Amino acid sequence: MANILKVLKGTKDILPQNIDMWHFIEQKADEVFSKYGFKEIRTPIIEVTELFSRGVGDTTDIVNKEMYTFEKSDRSITLRPENTAGVVRSYIENGMSRLSAPVKLWYKGPMFRYERPQAGRQRQFHQVGIEMFGIKQPTADAEVILMAVNYLKSIGLNDLDVEINSLGCPKCREEFKNKLKEVLKPYFNELCEDCQNRYEKNPLRLLDCKVESCKKIFAKPEIQEVINSDFICDECAEHYTELKLYLDKMGVKYTENKLLVRGLDYYNRTVFEIKSNNLGSQNAVAGGGRYDSLVGQLGGEPTPAVGFAMGMERLISLLPEKEPKKLDGYVVSNFPVDAFVLAEELRNQGLNVELDLTNKKFTKQLEKASKVAKYAFILGEDEILKHQVSIKNLEKGNQITVDRHCCVKMLEI
After folding, report:
1. CATH number of the domain bearing residue 261
2. Is 179 a member of any domain?
3. What is the pLDDT of residues 65-83, one digit of tens each?
4. Distance between CA atoms of 41 and 135, rounded to whole angstroms?
5. Are residues 283 and 394 in the same domain?
6. Same domain, 242 and 377
7. Does the N-terminal peptide bond of residue 117 adopt cis geometry, omega within 30 degrees of 0?
8. What pTM was computed for the model?
9. Cβ distance 348 to 328 under 8 Å?
10. pLDDT < 70 positions in the chain
11. Fewest CB atoms within 10 Å of the CB: 1, 195, 209, 367?
12. Of 276, 296, 317, which residue is a domain's last?
């Protein structure tokens, strides 16, 4: 017997019995995001590698360790590890800057990162997210956070913690980076290898480290004093204060987390995460923030922007399983030609209908119908001669016989 080929490690089949949950969270995304004026965009799964090295940042773990990259026709191509860079590329390439601001876009689809598979995260994983272009005011940040919270509530997640922080602008952040490097210098040799690499290239990312030994260093009083200092300039501080005012007015409860920096280089000013108390250490279900320099960095006109992304596998892991949807009807008959014709008539009238394609015994067909459908449409010899159909409600057990042309109208029996 030949070896059975199996799915690649870190990838999963989404099976028919699970697909209803995926449809549910996707439809809710369309429903909630549309209320705020967002339109769906679908970008390619493959992009030129330079898009991510320039956009996401060559100091990030994503670019350094996790991307699926290959050469084709002398071009370096990458399976997208995230979708903000791709949406920004599309925004620039398709001249969306000429549209009146704000330009609001949302997306869903697979992303790819080579990392250790864990609960709620695979090497091929799926995200739903949004990007808003053209608004520099904190009203955009507030709307994005509020919409993320409302979406999560719409799918049934209420036990949530919202964390926010301000990273400041490049100018005021530079002073903070230098202070952070200075206070961490005596502990450099005790930092993990990743943090030692980040020390020069992107010291702000040090605060994102999950290694316990590094966390202990960051907890030291002199380092906490730098972390908790009000390093941001007056303009950035005003932006942050106004954001909190809007969140307070809308009843969005949040905590301020000075260690929150997010894992991507393009963020500035507002960053946020939404966490679920029903997950383990990897408990973030949504994250995002402002990235005002990215459009310009990728070749477009300087454009303020803000967005978020959510891991769909993680969302689904927090929701109760849904019962598979049943068919509207199942045709039960030992007259295969007549059954075939009736099934198609019912489908043409808008019903989801199956029938037995192998002409099993009547009792076997009825048994199958009771498992997969709400109603059995029964065609015996009498029904065929009189041009009628017997309809059995498989949940209540009652049955009626009606003229064939009006059987759909009689389903509430």
Report:
1. 3.30.930.10
2. no
3. 788 899 988 899 999 999 9
4. 19
5. no
6. no
7. no
8. 0.87
9. no
10. 1-2, 57-64, 119-120, 262-265, 278-282, 410-413
11. 1
12. 317
